[in-house]
Write a structure and sequence with these properties.
This protein is an alpha+beta fold. It contains three helices and eight strands; from the N terminus they run ββββββββααα. It has two domains: 82 residues, ATP Synthase, domain 1 (Sandwich); 62 residues. Helix 1 packs antiparallel against helix 3. The N and C termini lie far apart (43 Å).
Length: 158
Amino acid sequence: MSKTLHLKVVTPERTLFEKDVLEVSLPTSEGQISVLPLHARLVTKLSHGDVLIKADSSSEVLAIYGGIAMIEADSKLTIIAEGADHLHELNEVEITEAIKRAQDYKQRFALEEAELAKSLNRDAKLVLAETQAEMLRNLTKLKVIKKHRSHHNLKIDK
């Protein structure tokens, strides 16, 4: 019987994590789940949130921005994320400033979203969509920082 679970977390840019762990908690589209060794096979969509990784005597937190998770029968969990960061890589001040900039950009348009979509040209619509996606990623980062700051005694602001 396997006592560990092999976890691999990858994004289009990099491999964030790969090693044997005891437990992984992750945000799925159906809610938070925990995966232990010998978990049943599963492929699930991931939502924005935190991934808590528990190893022998330590734990690690990742902020994740969507993707899929595949649990295989031989105690392997592969997370293919649209984007992800280690908690220690996140800077609360920079993230808060980015959220403020995105909110200011969105506020410049006084129209309702349906009217906004009609009135903007294709390039402006693309910029607005990218701004909204970036704001969602930054809100997720901020939520993860605030949730785990006290648990890990971290100095987040660099």
